[in-house]
Amino acid sequence: MEFFLDTAEMKEIETGLEWGMVDGVTTNPSLIAKAGKPYLPTVQAIAKLVPGPVSGEVLATEYEEILSQGHRLAKLADNVVVKVPLTPDGLRAVAAFKKEGIRTNVTLCFSATQALLAAKAGAAYISPFVGRLDDVAEEGMELIEQIVTIYQNYEFDTKVLVASVRHPVHIVQAAMLGADVATIPFKVLEQLYKHPLTDAGLDRFLADWKKTGKTFDS
Ligand code: G3P
């Protein structure tokens, strides 16, 4: 299972890379706005820093403009994946990008039918938003299960990228279902390491050795 960081904060990306847990990064307009940074230069800087795929989203909603912005994003670096909203114009652009060898990440997916359309259009990634489905009292993970099954049935190449992840249980459930990728906020990545028994156990090991008055070498 691949881990992408869902952020536009360079510090978080640098730390995630140091930890060796970041296979790629996803951004969106909200995340870049939150970081208070300019749009294209931010995607470019992240793509330079991260060896793996970096999703940069178009701001356009009309076909021609999606194509134009997607081309500009794709030209920033070889590892840029063009993120496109799940609309008729968006999926039409996905098919056009596919013919040109430009990889796409179809975002704002909330149903299995939408995921099927994205795969048929030739998306490299589909991004179902599990947290936002949970927010409206639907089971986000049921959608992941449906998409994984449908993609397996027809051997689609489109990767299932679990998005709108809010807590570690989402990661466990996504992994149990065999999702290809989870894109994770930095805070949740930190939480994945945490267990109180690890902290307590480490404290006890160190305290017990300290009581001996000896060092690492003696
Ligand atoms: O990956 C999509 C993500 O950035 C949206 O997350 O928490 O705003 O639903 P959230």
Give me the side-by-side strand order of the main sheet: 1-2-3-4-5-6-7-8
- Strand-residue fraction? 15-25%
Helix content: 40-55%
Q: Label the overall shape.
A: globular
Straight-line distance between termini: 43 Å
Question: Radius of gyration over alpha carbons?
Answer: 20 Å
Mean pLDDT: 98
The fold-level CATH name is TIM Barrel
Please give the CATH architecture: Alpha-Beta Barrel
Largest sheet: 8 strands, parallel, barrel
CATH class: Alpha Beta
Q: In total, how many beta strands?
A: 8
Helices and strands, in N-to-C order? EHEHHEHEHEHEHHEHEHH
Contiguous low-pLDDT stretches (5 residues minimum) are none
Number of helices: 11
Strand-pairing-aware structural class: alpha/beta
Number of domains: 1
The CATH homologous superfamily is called Aldolase class I
| Ligands, ions, cofactors | SN-glycerol-3-phosphate
